Amino acid sequence: MTVKSTLQQQLETLSAARYPLHMPGHKRRVLPAPGLGCYAWDLTEIDGADDLHDADGILADAMTRTAALYGARRCWYLVGGSTVGLLAGIRALAPFGSTVIAARNCHKAVYHAIELGQLTARWLTPPVDPQFGIYGSVRPADVAAALDAAPDARCVILTSPTYEGVLSDIRTIAEICHARGVPLLVDEAHGAHYLPFAARYGWRGGAVAAGADLVVQSAHKTLPSLTQTAFLQLNGDLADPAGVERQLDVFETSSPSYPLMVSLDGCTRWLADEGEAAFAAWRARLDAFDAAVRDLKNTKILCCGADALTAHPDFFAHDSGKILLQIGAAGAAYLRADGFEPEMVCGPNVLAMTSPCDDADALERLADVLHAWDKTAAPPAAPRHILPAPGAARCTIAEALLRPARAVRMRDAVGETAAEYLWAYPPGVPLVAPGEEVTAELVTACRALEQAGTALKHTGGSGAEEIAVLL
Fold first, then answer.
1. Best CA proximity match to 113, nearest among 362, 407, 433, 464
2. Under DSSP, is residue 8 helix (H, G, I), strand (E, B) or coil?
C-alpha cells in the first residue's frame, strides 16, 4: 500500500474544504492531461497552504523533516532544480563584483551565477584522468593555494560528485576553507543519495556530513522525486539564512508547484521508511554487476569490473552508482537496440546512471548486453583531445558578454578571446567560457568530439565549426 506524504495529506484536506476562487485556472476540476491526478490538490499560497518564500507552516515542517534526515541545519525545497539553488547560493555568498574560487568543471549554472553577479573567478582546474579523459578530484592543496593567492575570495565552489561520479575530499577542503573564514558551496546535484545512513552501504563523503556550508542536491537525479525538484542544505554560520532566502526569492518562481514540493516531501518519507532496505538492495545489485563484468576484454568501465579505483591516482573516490562505459556512440546505439537508453554520450564515454529504484534485474540485463557487445567491439583507444586545458582568462565572463563580437571559423580563432560558451550537454561543463583565450587545444578537442558524434552547444549564435570572438 502506498503511504501518502504528510504534506500531500494536508493539501488534500485544504483542497476539499473550500471552493477555489484563486489560482490555478484548472480549479481542481479539469484534468490538464491524462494521468495528472495531482491536479486535485494543486494549490497556491492560500490560507493554510503556507508560502515557500516565507514558510512558517506545513512547508516549513516538511523542510525541517528533510533537514533532519540529512543532518543539515536548514533545508530549502527547490522547484527550479539545482540550477536555482546554485544561482541563489552563489549570489548570497558572493556580493556583486566580488571574487570567488571555483572548480573549472562546474556546471554551466555556476558560470551563469558568476556572469550575473559580474564576479571574478579564480579557477581550480582538476587533473585530467588520461584513461577516460574526464576531470579528477579537486586537490585540497590546490584549494589552499588558491585561497592564499586570493585572500579576498568570498567563497569556494566545487562539484562533488561530478557527472561521472568523481568525488573530492570535501571534509579536508571544508576545513581549509573554514580556517580562513571562507564558506564552501558544493554542487552535489548528483549526490542527493549521500545521506547519513547511506555510508553503511558504501556512499561515503557526502558534502553535508563533511561540513560544507551550502549544499545543492538534485533529488530527482538519483532518488524518487519528480524532475525539477532539488534541495538546498545549509550548515554552520558562514552562510546567512536570510541572505539565502532573499536570493531564492529573486531566482525562484513566486508560484512554486505544490505537486513538486509534495514530491520532495514524499521522497523524504520514502527515504526515512524504506531507504535502508532500498540502499542495501542497490549495493547488492551494484556489487553483482561489478563481479559480472570483470571478464570483459574490450569494454572499459570506470572503477568497475577489471578497472579499480587505484588505477586512477587523481580520484579521491568514485560513486559506484555511476557506470561510465568507454563504448562511444556505436556502443550507445547497441544499448538502445537492446532496450537501454543511456544518460549521456560524450566522445568515447557513455554514462549509465543507476538508483535505488532500478528494477531488480536491470543491471543483470545490462551486463548481458555488454558481454554481447564485448565479443565484437574493438579494444577502446585512450581518449585524446576531448578535454582541453582552459585558455587564459583575459577578462571576466560578464565583461566579455557586454563587448561586441563576431563569428569566425574555429581554425581561424586561435589566439582570439571567446565571446560565448561552448559545451556538450550533457554534461554541461563549458569547454570554453567568454573572456578566455581560444587555444589550438580547444579547436582540436571540439573537432574530436564532433567527429565522435557529440553535438556542441554554441551560446553566442555562431554556427557549427564557428565560434564568436571579441572584436
1. 433
2. helix
Q: Where are the strands (E) in 273-392, listed by range?
A: 300-301, 317-318, 322-326, 344-346, 349-353
Separation of alpha carbons 59 and 10, rounded Å: 10
Cell numbers given for 304? 568497475
pTM exceeding 0.90? yes
CA angle (221, 367, 131) in 5-degree steps:
75
Instruction: State which amino acid sits at residue 13.
Output: T
Q: What angle do CA 201, 207, 210 make, to 5 degrees?
A: 90
Q: What is the 3-state secondary structure (H, E, C) of 377-408?
A: CCCCCCCCCCCCCCCCECCCHHHHHHCCEEEE
Chain CA centroid to CA 431, Å = 17
Q: What residues contact 269, with CB distance under 8 A and at least 6 apart?
A: 3, 5, 6, 65
Residue 371: partners with Cβ closer than 8 Å, 6 or more residues away: 293, 296
d(CA 263, CA 471): 48
Query: What is the phi/psi pair of residue 419, to 5°?
Result: -115, 10
Tell me the residue length of the chain.
471
List pLDDT tens digits, range 385-444.
889 999 999 999 999 999 999 999 999 999 999 999 999 999 999 999 999 999 999 999
CA atoms within 13 A on the CB side of 181: 2
Instruction: Answer whether 55's CB lies under 8 Å from 63's CB.
Output: yes
Q: Which residues contact 457 (CB under 8 A, 6 or more apart)?
A: 421, 422, 423, 424, 425
Nearest to 321 by CA among 160, 188, 203: 203
Parallel, antiparallel, or unpaired: how do β-strands 99-103 and 120-124 relate? parallel
Number of neighbours of residue 42 by Cβ within 10 angstroms: 22
Q: Which of 236, 244, 256, 225 is nearest to 89 (CA)?
A: 244
Distance CA 102, CA 126 (A): 11
In this prediction, residue 1 has a pLDDT band, given cuts at 50, 70 and 90, of very low
| Residues sharing a CB contact under 8 Å with residue 383, sequence separation 6 or more, in sequence order | 131, 132, 133, 326, 347, 348, 349
* Statement: residue 261 has pLDDT above 50: yes
Say how many C-beta atoms besides its own lie within 10 A of residue 149's C-beta.
10
How far apart, in whole angstroms, are the C-alpha atoms of residue 416 and residue 471?
9
Beta bridge partners of 7: none
Neighbour tally for 465: CB within 10 Å:
14
| 404 three-class SS | coil
Q: Name every residue whose Cβ is closer than 8 Å to that of residue 230 and which is 6 or more positions away in sequence.
A: 77, 78, 80, 81, 82, 84, 85, 189, 192, 216, 217, 218, 219, 220
All cell numbers assigned to 155: 567563497
